[in-house]
Amino acid sequence: MSLIIPPDDFNRVKVVVMPQGLNKYPGYIIDFKRAPYFSVLDETCAPPPIPEWFDLLKAIPKSSAVIWHDSPLIKLYDGVGSYREAMTREIKLKHYIILGGDSIVDVLAYDEPVVEKFTERQKFVMEHSF
Asked: Which of 5, 15, 40, 88 would you label with 122, given CA atoms 20 to 30 Å apart?
């Protein structure tokens, strides 16, 4: 899995997932908007030191994606962000977890992600000026 953070939109995270390995298609780009928190862990055997993490990892397959509805991180980050809806609690923060073999990507986001499938090599161009 790879993470792309557009330099002009720090609240947006794109996760590139190749379920069958590099250069084996299809692949997917999962685009999260209004995401105030994300992390990438290289080892599924070494999640954050939160007891609930271990229980969750035991319960789901190694290559899967889930929404963790009662995540402890939701309580910490709910209402974070400069979004009017977040501050007034009109929308709910969700904790998305993607397990890709030996890595974990977790994202807290207010919006549902957009998933784009690709069937051949992709080129990502990032341009930003200061």
From this structure: 40
